[in-house]
Write a structure and sequence with these properties.
Distance between the termini: 47 Å
Strand order of the largest sheet: 11-10-9-12-13-14-15-16
Oligomer: single chain
Number of helices: 12
Structural class: alpha/beta
Radius of gyration: 21 Å
Number of strands: 17
Shape: globular
């Protein structure tokens, strides 16, 4: 089951699985790409992230329009030319488009005369979207990769809000964040001279869980401009294999990987990127104890309370954790924690997962039962699966990675971040009062982009 198609079953929009799938196969997207001369690498990062996310949402097809003959300049392990990289991620490439499909614009791509269009923009630590004809243009410095990733994720979210009919204002607003300063009153469209150039990168990271969030973390790490990629050592921990539904939310897997272990698939990707890897194929819990030679920083993407309760017991100097909403109403929400903090992980999570809304009475589940496709037990299991969207995980990953990068650059670490993509401006942010600057987080050096102005 496609985890976003399931939304239409759970909220009653579609009366059958086939109807829900047919609606999604009617969703089409065009990405217009015309890079600015000074920041081609940053805009390629936005483009490739947009494609990787959108192909999992707009099942009717994603088409990229523009000149893609340039060399692919991101550090991702993709094809040499931008065109081949786009094709390998699942989009079509056309010189122009007259379909009238909704659009995401990057760089100087021209705005259509009518129809939905937003422009994904990023500079320094700031990223977001503006209406296609907006006079607001972010200038100055190349975006750090989480800012580019954030711009892409917000653009795909906005396009989906439009086709899904969830937010009538979609496409007519500016929406973004300063990842250097998440305070609600910060205007992300205004240059911030306090933003530091990207100089320090994590040198060792333990990824707990390699599903929706874990793969988004790894994509973001892959975008980081390491002077020497081998300076990053990764521990990849998961017990699951790739299933047919994995591709619908997870940015680094596709149907060719079904049946393989997530650890093996993602270790292979990370090693092609140049990183060093070690795999752990066991559950995370109180029995996990970090050894002195293992990463002191952990990024957590598991979604069960039992594992989360042990996050600050394994001996990491810093743990960053993200949890996503699971239901058809709240799947765009996310809550990010850092540990240690003022509350322990045992205090935050109870021994059982939260009670979930019962959607088994919706028509689509009744249809499955009537046809004999599933028995009542199967219906209950399917209804209990999470609704998920790849752009939500990518947004959360951009926030988590920026927390780590910010503390490496001497900035504030936040203990709690609450975000809902329906109302990004109403986020809640609580600083972590514990000092992490003397902890052994480890760092590697970044290769400075040629367009970066410090």
């Amino acid at each position: 089951m496609h985890r976003l198609v399931k939304q239409l079953m759970d909220n009653g929009t579609a009366a059958t699985v086939a109807e829900a799938e047919a609606i999604f196969h009617g969703y089409k997207l065009v990405i217009g790409y015309e890079p600015d001369d000074m920041d081609e690498a940053g805009q390629q990062s936005i483009l490739l992230t947009c494609v990787a996310l959108a192909k999992r949402v707009f099942l009717g097809g994603v088409t990229v329009v523009g000149n893609l003959s340039a060399v692919q300049k991101t550090p991702l392990p993709l094809s040499r030319t931008l065109r081949d990289a786009v094709l390998s991620l699942g989009a079509a490439v056309e010189p122009e488009d007259r379909s009238g499909s909704l659009r995401i614009l990057i760089g100087r791509a021209p705005a259509p005369t009518s129809g939905f269009a937003v422009r994904a923009v990023a500079s320094g630590w700031r990223g977001g979207i503006v209406p296609s004809n907006s006079p607001h243009v972010l200038r100055g410095s190349s975006p750090i990769p989480p800012a580019a990733m954030l711009a892409a994720a917000l653009a795909v979210n906005e396009a989906f809000l439009h086709v899904n009919g969830t937010a009538p204002v979609a496409g007519r607003r500016s929406l973004g964040l300063s990842l250097w300063n998440l305070e609600a009153e910060t205007d992300w469209l205004v240059d911030d001279p306090s933003e530091p150039p990207l100089t320090y990168l994590p040198s060792s990271v333990w990824l707990i869980g390699l599903g929706h969030l874990g793969q988004a973390y790894l994509w973001g790490l892959g975008l980081l401009p390491y002077a020497d990629a081998q300076t990053l050592k990764l521990v990849l921990q998961d017990t699951d294999g790739v299933t047919p539904s994995t591709e619908s939310t997870s940015i680094l897997t596709d149907t060719s990987m079904v049946g393989q272990r997530k650890t093996r698939v993602l270790a292979s990707w990370a090693e092609r990127r140049g990183f060093q890897t070690e795999i752990q194929e066991r559950l995370f819990g109180a029995w996990i104890k970090r050894q002195n030679f293992e990463p002191t920083v952990a990024l957590c993407g598991i979604d069960n309370a039992l594992g989360r309760r042990a996050l600050d017991q394994a001996g990491f100097d810093l743990v960053l954790e993200a949890g996503l909403g699971r239901g058809h109403r709240d799947f765009r929400t996310m809550r990010i924690h850092s540990f240690p903090g003022s509350r322990s992980s045992e205090e935050i999570w109870t021994r059982t997962d939260a009670v979930r809304e019962d959607t088994t009475q919706q028509a689509a589940y009744g249809d499955l039962l009537k046809k004999g496709a599933l028995d009542q037990c199967g219906i209950t299991l399917l209804a209990g699966k999470a609704v998920g969207a790849p752009f939500v995980g990518a947004t959360a990953a951009a926030l988590v990675l920026s927390e780590l990068l910010r503390v490496l650059h001497g900035g504030i670490l936040n203990q709690l971040i609450d975000v809902d993509l329906l109302s990004l401006e109403h986020r809640a942010v609580v600083p972590n009062r514990i000092s992490f600057h003397e902890r052994n987080l480890g760092f590697a050096t970044a290769r400075r982009p040629s367009g970066y102005q410090s």
